[in-house]
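Lecture 7 notes: from sequence to structure.

We start with a single chain of 245 residues. Read the sequence below before looking at the structure.
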Amino acid sequence: LSSGNHGQGVALAARLLGLKAHVVMPKPISPYKRACVSGHGATVWIADDRDAAQRVAQNIVRDEQAVFVHAFNDPDVMAGQGTVMLELVNQAARLDVVLAPIGGGGLLSGLCVAAHHLQPDIKLFACEPAGAADAAESLRVNRVVPMPHPQTRADGLRSSLGDRTLPILRQHLAGVFLVTEAEILDAMRFAYERLKIVIEPSSAVALAPILRREPDLIGRRIGVIVTGGNVDLDPLWAIHAEPRA
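Now the structure, written as tokens:
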């Protein structure tokens, strides 16, 4: 059950291990990410929404005698993603703050547990699109608040929190930064032009608070978790391919 990035990892791992992978993607989906998942050899199933995706996944588990791997609400997934923090701490000197995007919260849950085991005083902030601010609301009211119609181009962050990720995040997070769609695009452009890397909107969300100079970040040594570079460049190439007058 995946929005795309997780599905690519599952598909690649399955291929390397000689296993079959079935990835269920709820709408709206990124055609580019769907192609990437299929390219790694997985069978992709499209569902109308997350509830329907859950039912499709359950049917596949039953019919294929498969093992269900949730995209974020799974302790093993959280633990695996938490190894990102181990790598960051090993590669960078002592950090004051870490910024990471939030969708379902699996990545951030793993980061939080690993970070506060290694460095208890580090502050972790979730970064979320303002058009899909269900995580911020869920953390405020201490229950999972669904986001049925998210309005953001950051397609990897349209998931609501899980019942396993919410309590971990409430315990560990220092706060949530909401980011506008314009700020997402500005951060993507900055990364491309100044850092020379291509990042997808879901990654740019974590870079945007630095660019707008959030007060809590001034003078701090900051780590930013960049989660993916799945950007569909076809529209850009189509523009350049148009005949010029």
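The chain is about 50% helix and 10% strand. Keep this in mind for problem set 3.
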